[in-house]
């Protein structure tokens, strides 16, 4: 045994001597192993960085991943640790041995802490890339000038603060300087105009302020400049027109004022100019026509006035022209239609008038046109889709007339068509195989709904409402469109019967009020499992209300008012837990309104105009109807007998209850139930807790006597607060929406209460964030969250702010439908701790409106942050301020990568997803505006997100 022990000791000694010998001639490997020991490598991406097993003499690290050596494998000249999921804080001490290192790439990791000063001793370094990490603190000052050979300095997307490093301007060979996407503050140093070799400068998305230095105009070698998404003072320096080599200039979102300097027209090599989202005034310089190579010009979201310059006819390479959201006027020059490269034309929300150019679309591959919310007249240019690539045409809120051109009727590439709020006439085309969204409402179309709906197999949204001369019937194929979700044709003189609902799995909204529909509501409506809203009011429908309508779990709004329906209200509606509105007023409905709190909450307006209808909330039913019925004396006697027995039992139970109350009044439990919870006693609930421990926990799970599993939250209160808190809990319990977790009831005494919620075991959004999900699922999730929040803000009176909106408070049901959990709970906690939240204060309080509005704005901000979290698969959390301070195109590029979107792909599906992501991100940017008054209401945010309105309208 001792022999083996001696051998083991000797082997260790030999091994140690061997490693020491290796490291004596190979300090690089030793330094890298020391570096590895500091790193967090959860995915073992540096597993091949091992102690060498070969003979000394060469640098063993040359065989390791990310390490580059010279030809003889004797010197390390490059280290690339990019995208290896590494983290930790770097000491930097290991870099002292890398005297010949030329390239160091630490990008796309999670390194944090201060940037090691030792890095700046690498005097042979040509490229330093530390982008997309979380380095913080001030960028090391006074040492950067030591990297005299540096060509590339990329520190994009970190958390640096303080001033920009002035010493960077002393780097003679520097070509790329990227300090965007951090928290640098203060002005751009005027010394930044003295770079000798700089070609690329990116400072956008920081907290920079002050005036843009005129010295930047001295940068004669720069081809790409991005300095927007900061908050400067003053105007654009005219001296920037001296940057003779610049091809890309972006100063968007930078708080700039004044007019656009005409000297920018001297930038004759410019291809892209982005000055959107500022406060620029005056006219667009005619001199811009001299920039013959210009491809993208975006001056949107400013206060520009005047017409589009006629001279723009010289911009033969122009692909994107965006002047939207300004105060421009006049007509659109006919010469604009002659531009051979024009693909995207955005001029909406201005004061343009006259007709669109007659030849628009004839000479270029026009892909997207949005001229909505102007004063245009005339017709749609006949050749607008002649090249066959137009996929979005947005013309709403103008004064267009005439019928749709044959070119548009056969535009097979069209995905989105919005022509609402005009005076278009003639028949409606539907030979559009790629179309997903059509809104033709508020026009003068005729000829009925197109009969061959199969020509639009991808259609999801169709709105033909308020076309009073449309007429015709509803084609039987309408409900069979495989993707159709929203069908609206209200106030359009539609006649005939409702066709059978043979296949309608995707339809969620049917709106057909104010027509002349006759016949009955088909029983086959039960096939529409996704139906959320049906509005058939103000028609001539007869027959009874289908009982199967009450079995649709998603259905929340039913309006059958002002028809000729008869019979009774199906009893099953009393158990419809998601029902928010059932309006059967002004029909010939009779009998008793089914019992159920949801139906009582509708109010009398939902039932008036039915003389033979009775029961709460209307007048009580006659005793002959409510007690004895009308069939047989024997049955009457049985009912009377049962009633008497029930009265006796009630009296006995009351006496026992009074006796019990007198004995145990301090600890007596009471029960309040909301729609969806069977009638249990407080004792039933208390016995259902798993154990004494679970009953004492703040959150637990309980199985009720019928087997229903509920989630239970405990809250303590004082006797003095019990009344007002129970009132607010009742408001929470009456809030019913498919995207809210139902509060089923609460059990309480004078000391504490237990709130009983639906138990949804399918996890929360925070848990599922990093799971790979398709874009459709993400979009569905965001819409669901938005609908739930919109209901709390706009359909509850007073409004109920959520108060704690975050991904862990969004849970999923068995159909992966999102539900908002814990809405209002924050305010109960506040009250229990002694303060009175504005949300439950008296409505006559002078501060109520302002206080509750502030809480709603906080919710909207949280919604914007959740959008970003979903878009980035959980990569960005609490990112509202950071996305406001980063360039939008940078954020978009990252999100496209997160969602595996190939930008520029001509695949229509990919292009549509690309544009939808832009739309969703813009909603997030609006919701996370720093100034609460700049944020949209939740109702407007949801409309934007749903595509019902374009951005900022």
The total count of helices amounts to: 17
Rg from Cα:
35 Å
Distance between the termini: 86 Å
Q: How can the largest sheet be summarized?
A: 23 strands, mixed
Q: Helix content range of the residues, please?
A: 10-25%
Keywords: ATP-binding, Glycoprotein, Leucine-rich repeat, Membrane, Nucleotide-binding, Receptor, Repeat, Signal, Transmembrane, Transmembrane helix
GO biological process, one term: post-embryonic development
Main location: membrane
Membrane topology: Single-pass type I membrane protein
Structure report:
- The protein is of the alpha/beta class and 953 residues long.
- It has 17 helices and 49 strands.
- The chain has a 23-stranded mixed beta sheet, with no helix packed on it.
- Helix 1 packs across helix 2 and helix 13 runs antiparallel to helix 16.
- The chain is globular and about 100 Å long.
- The termini are far apart.
- InterPro entries: Kinase-like_dom_sf, Leu-rich_rpt, Leu-rich_rpt_typical-subtyp, LRR_dom_sf, LRR_N_plant-typ, Plant_RL_S/T_kinase, Prot_kinase_dom, Ser/Thr_kinase_AS.
């Amino acid at each position: 045994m001792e022999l083996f022990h001696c051998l083991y000791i000797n082997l260790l000694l030999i091994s140690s001597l061997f490693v020491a010998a290796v490291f004596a001639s190979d300090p690089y490997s030793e330094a890298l192993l020391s570096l590895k020991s500091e790193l967090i490598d959860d995915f073992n991406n540096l597993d091949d960085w091992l102690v060498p097993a070969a003979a000394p003499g060469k640098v063993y690290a040359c065989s390791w991943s990310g390490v580059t050596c010279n030809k003889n494998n004797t010197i390390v000249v490059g280290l690339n640790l990019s995208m290896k999921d590494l983290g930790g804080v770097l000491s930097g001490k290991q870099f002292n041995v890398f005297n010949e290192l030329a390239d160091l790439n630490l990008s796309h990791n999670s390194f944090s802490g201060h940037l090691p000063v030792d890095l700046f001793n690498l005097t042979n370094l040509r490229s330093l890339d530390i982008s997309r990490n979380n380095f913080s603190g001030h960028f090391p000052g006074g040492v950067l000038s030591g990297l005299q050979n540096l060509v590339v300095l990329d520190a994009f997307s970190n958390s640096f603060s303080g001033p920009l490093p002035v010493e960077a301007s002393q780097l003679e060979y520097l070509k790329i300087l990227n300090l965007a996407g951090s928290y640098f503050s203060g002005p751009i140093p005027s010394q930044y105009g003295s770079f000798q070799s700089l070609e690329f400068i990116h400072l956008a998305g920081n907290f920079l302020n002050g005036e843009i230095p005129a010295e930047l105009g001295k940068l004669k070698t720069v081809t790409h400049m991005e300095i927007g998404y900061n908050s400067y003072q003053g105007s654009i320096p005219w001296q920037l027109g001296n940057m003779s080599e610049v091809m890309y200039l972006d100063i968007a979102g930078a708080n700039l004022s004044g007019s656009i300097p005409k000297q920018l027209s001297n930038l004759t090599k410019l291809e892209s100019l982005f000055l959107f989202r500022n406060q620029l005034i005056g006219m667009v310089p005619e001199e811009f026509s001299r920039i013959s190579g210009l491809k993208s010009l975006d001056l949107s979201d400013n206060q520009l006035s005047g017409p589009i310059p006629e001279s723009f006819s010289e911009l033969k390479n122009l692909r994107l022209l965006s002047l939207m959201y300004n105060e421009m006027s006049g007509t659109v020059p006919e010469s604009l239609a002659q531009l051979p490269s024009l693909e995207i034309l955005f001029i909406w929300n201005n004061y343009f008038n006259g007709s669109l150019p007659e030849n628009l679309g004839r000479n270029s591959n026009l892909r997207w046109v949005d001229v909505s919310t102007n004063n245009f007249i005339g017709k749609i240019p006949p050749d607008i889709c002649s090249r066959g690539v137009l996929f979005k045409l947005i013309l709403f809120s103008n004064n267009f007339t005439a019928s749709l051109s044959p070119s548009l009727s056969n535009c097979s590439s069209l995905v989105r068509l919005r022509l609402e709020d005009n005076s278009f006439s003639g028949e409606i085309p539907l030979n559009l195989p790629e179309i997903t969204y059509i809104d033709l409402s508020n026009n003068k179309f005729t000829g009925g709904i197109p009969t061959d709906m199969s020509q639009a197999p991808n259609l999801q949204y169709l709105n033909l409402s308020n076309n009073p001369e449309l007429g015709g019937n509803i084609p039987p194929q309408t409900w069979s469109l495989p993707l159709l979700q929203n069908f609206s044709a209200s106030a359009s003189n539609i006649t005939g019967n409702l066709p059978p609902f043979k296949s309608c799995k995707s339809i969620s909204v049917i709106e057909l009020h104010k027509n002349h529909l006759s016949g009955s509501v088909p029983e086959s409506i039960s096939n529409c499992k996704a139906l959320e809203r049906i509005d058939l009011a103000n028609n001539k429908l007869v027959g009874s209300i289908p009982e199967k309508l009450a079995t649709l779990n998603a259905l929340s709004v039913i309006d059958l008012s002002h028809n000729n329906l008869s019979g009774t209200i199906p009893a099953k509606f009393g158990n419809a837990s998601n029902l928010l509105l059932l309006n059967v007023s002004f029909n010939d409905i009779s009998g008793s309104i089914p019992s159920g709190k949801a139906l009582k909450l509708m109010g009398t307006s939902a039932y008036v105009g039915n003389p033979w209808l009775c029961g709460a909330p209307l007048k009580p039913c006659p005793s002959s109807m409510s007690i004895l019925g009308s069939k047989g004396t024997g049955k009457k006697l049985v009912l009377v007998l049962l009633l008497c027995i029930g009265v006796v039992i009630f009296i006995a139970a009351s006496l026992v209850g009074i006796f019990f109350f007198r004995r145990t009044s301090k600890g007596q439990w009471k029960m309040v139930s909301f729609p969806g919870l069977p009638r249990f006693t407080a004792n039933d609930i208390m016995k259902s807790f798993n154990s004494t421990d679970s009953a004492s926990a703040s959150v637990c799970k309980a199985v009720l006597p019928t087997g229903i599993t509920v989630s239970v939250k405990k809250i303590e209160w004082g006797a003095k607060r019990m009344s007002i808190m129970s009132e607010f809990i009742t408001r929470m319990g009456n809030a019913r929406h498919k995207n809210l977790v139902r509060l089923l009831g609460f059990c309480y005494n004078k000391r504490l209460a237990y709130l009983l919620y639906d138990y949804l075991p399918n996890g929360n959004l925070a848990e599922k964030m990093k799971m790979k999900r398709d874009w459709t699922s993400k979009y569905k999730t965001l819409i669901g969250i938005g609908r739930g929040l919109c209901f709390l803000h706009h359909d509850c009176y007073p409004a109920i702010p959520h108060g704690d909106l975050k991904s862990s408070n969004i849970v999923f049901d068995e159909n992966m439908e999102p539900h908002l959990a814990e809405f209002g709970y924050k305010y109960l906690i506040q009250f229990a701790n002694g303060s009175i939240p504005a949300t439950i204060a008296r409505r006559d309080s002078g501060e109520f409106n302002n206080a509750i509005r502030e809480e709603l704005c906080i919710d909207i901000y949280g919604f914007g942050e959740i959008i970003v979290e979903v878009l980035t698969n959980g990569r960005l959390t609490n990112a509202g301020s950071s996305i406001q301070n980063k360039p939008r195109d940078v954020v978009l590029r990252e999100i496209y990568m997160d969602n595996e979107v190939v930008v520029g792909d001509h695949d229509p599906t990919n292009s549509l997803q690309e544009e939808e992501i832009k739309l969703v991100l813009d909603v997030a940017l609006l919701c996370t505006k720093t100034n609460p008054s700049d944020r949209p209401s939740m109702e407007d945010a949801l409309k934007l997100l749903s595509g019902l309105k374009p951005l900022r309208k």
